[in-house]
Each structure stands twice: as C-alpha cells, then as structure tokens.
Fold IMP dehydrogenase.
Amino acid sequence: MLPLAFYYDEPAHTFSEYLLVPGYSSSECIPDNVNLVTPLVKFKKGEEPAISLNIPMVSAIMQSVSNDKLAVALSREGGCSFIYGSQTVEDEAQMVRNVKSHRAGFVVSDSNITPDSTLADVLALKEKTGHSTVAVTSDGTVNGKMEGIITSRDYRVSRMDLSTKVRDFMTPISKLIVGKKDTTLQQANDIIWDNKLNTLPIIDDDGRLLYMVFRKDYVSHKEYPLELLDDKKRHVVGAGINTRDYAERVPALVEAGADVLCIDSSEGFSEWQKITLKWIRDHYGDKVKVGAGNVVDAEGFRFLADCGADFVKVGIGGGSICITRETKGIGRGQATALIDVCKARDEYFKETGVYVPVCSDGGIVYDYHMTLALAMGADFLMLGRYFARFDESPTNKVNVNGSYMKEYWGEGSNRARNWQRYDMGGSQKLSFEEGVDSYVPYAGSLKDNVNLTLAKIRSTMCNCGALNLGELREKAKLTLVSATSIVEGGAHDVLLKDNTAATYAK
C-alpha cells in the first residue's frame, strides 16, 4: 500500500479570522512609552543583534515598491527597504550606493572637479549626480587637496560662458571654514550652525578632502528621531538576491555598502537556497547578513536556520498581487503559517541559543493585521502593497475613473518577468504567471501613513498591557472569530454618510 499524503489537523487561518483580547493596562501603558525596536538578523543568547530595526517594517523586494527613493524615506522612519533584485547587478548596486550616500554625518563626496575644469563640466557633473554642491580638489578626486567649493550660488548660467574655468568662480579654500580630521559630528554641526553654513568640508593635516558635512542632514535627523543609520551615520539598506547569479551580485552589493541581503524566492525550502547560503558563508563568513525564504511551516524554518539564514521569511501566496495559490495550489493561510514558524523559532532558540528572527511576508490587508502578526510572533513585517501606495514608491500615479491610483505589479507577473524568483533549475522560465498587474489607491507620503499605522500599533499594544514587542508576544490573548462576528466588528445596520450618497451598511 502506498503511503498517504500528510494532512494538517486544522484549517489554515488568515489574520482576519483573529482578534486580540485586551489585557490589563497599567498607567505606564501609553503610546509614547511603547518601544518598537526589533532584531533584523540572528544573534546568540546574551548578545545583541548586529542590526536592529527601530520599527518592525521592511519593504518588499519588488520593482513596484523598493527603489532608492523609498529606501531613504523608510530608513528615516526607522525601517529598512530591500532594493529589488530583478534588475542588472550594476543598477541594483547603484541604487544601494545612492541610499548610502544620500545622508550621512560624514559624507564621502561623489561630486568632485579640478580648478581647470569648466562651467560646462560642472553642469554635466551636476546632471550626473544630482548634487548642486561640488568639491574642487587639485586632481578632481575624492581625496585630492582641497582647492575650493562650488554651489549654485557661485554661477549663473545665463550670464557666464560655459568655457569659464572653475578657478574663476569657485569659492576658494582661503575663504572657506573647514573642519579638521578629528572634528566630531556634534562639533561639525555646531560649526555649521554658528557660522550659518550649508556645507562644512572636513580635511586632513595635508589639506586633503576627507568628508563633507551638510546642514540639511542635521535638520533631517531632528525631524526623524527614529532614523535607522549605520555606524557611519548612513541610511541602513537591504538588497534582494536570487539563487542564480549570486556569485556576481553579492560581491557588487557588498562593495556598494548593502547592510543586509535577502534571497528573493517564491519558495525557500529548496537546495537552491542551501547552495546560495553556503556560498555566501564560504566567501564572507558571518560578515554578510542574509535572510532567506519563503516558508510556511516549522520544517521549512528549521531547514533555512540550519543552512545559516540570518532571518527567515514566512508566507506563500498571501500577497495581494500573488496568484500562486490559485495557479499552483501551493501555500498556507498566513496566520497559521506564522504561528507555526514562530513556535519553531522559539524551540530552535531553546535548543541552540541562536535566535533567528521571523519576517511575516504577505497577508496584510488592514493596519490591525500588523499588530496581530507581531502578537503571533513576527519580529518584523515585509510589506508590498502598503508601500506601493506612497509618493516615494517608483511607480506612476494615474487617474482611474476619477480617483488617483498607483501602479502595482507582482514579481511573478509578465510585466516584471523576474524568472529568477520562480525558476526551478530547468530550461523552462516563467511559462505562466504567478502575479498580476494592478492598481492600488494613492495614499500620499510614506511618513504620514507610517506614523498613523504605528500610532495604531502602539495604541493596541497598550490595550494588551505591552510596552515592547517581547511583552506583546508574552501577554497577547488571541481569539478566533466567526463569520458573523467579523460582520459585527464593522459598521453595520446604520446609514453611512459620505460626500456623494448615503450607503447602508448591513
């Protein structure tokens, strides 16, 4: 007799089938006291993780979500973006470099020119880098002897010949206030404010340029107190990789400054991910942090944890633009999958003393689903549709039937053609779609929306008597809900008011 397939004893549930039951709230349980710091990568018992998030949110590895612009915006709020990998190695690495150089306490100048260059050269450099401040060094290199500086106030294109030499209109070093190599960031900011400067060059004892400190960066940090920065005061950023060209892609991303990598795959319980993780460990040891996934059960989690993953992503077929379940019959309800994997994570920690964070990827429809996922054990959430709606996402804003929308498509769609994410190693490549091309309602700026979402999460945590995510997992009481109680939980049996017509909510 042939063996029978394995059957799980209970149905797989979604987030919408659960509610949190309030717990005792002390007088200390107010939203301002809630701490949302959470580990991004694995760590040993008694040690601190190499990278932690200030908020439990990362953006999905998708063409329609995570580019360099959104990565900067999310880092400012305390989260981390994973730059999409379905582009050339060079283009992805450049996006990472753009994020790492966008703001820093001490910025390595990427806009440098010689005194003998011309105004035309300055304008060409500005067009290339997008930066209006240009350092003038003796040889035009990043660490050449500092000769002066050029800003947009130093020239007027309409009144100057394009062949005018830089030395004739730059602000020379003799008229500049500069900082020395041992100047701290606080001292640099004091100099900037005391002297009403926009830029402070930092030079060494031989007069060579080391860094630039910008006034706008100081203002930015005051506006974004949870900003997620590395030890050089640069934005933290992740990047997606695949199980095909990792030997070329990983070195380029590491060189560009990526803080953490993640294997982007529709299904992570495979030898392909094991091979990829082994290659990274053989070449970089534990210095390069890399997450893996996706899985939906304890067995898949333990496989990737044993392979050396720094975090594990949970979720197959739960994304709003994913049709894997209806196309292939593969997947599991996100809530059930998450609960199962988080239990395995805790057991793994007890056995090995190594804590491998769990990332819940998919299944989030409403903001309260995020709090449920965190209560169920997720260390952080990977979000696609949520971030695709914002100004900072890379897609077009369009008018659809009188409403503003943003384009949003899956990595398994024909538009993305990200076959590396779905290729199983044979000759057939993305012969059918596992994602759709769609629109999502335009929602405005990332900052405004993230702050509103976090306010809801903090408030709900206080209702549960929790002031941090660890306490939320310990104190949370979750209950399954019936179909009728879901109806009861929304507006019902009233006539709703809106700007156009009354609608009856049943």
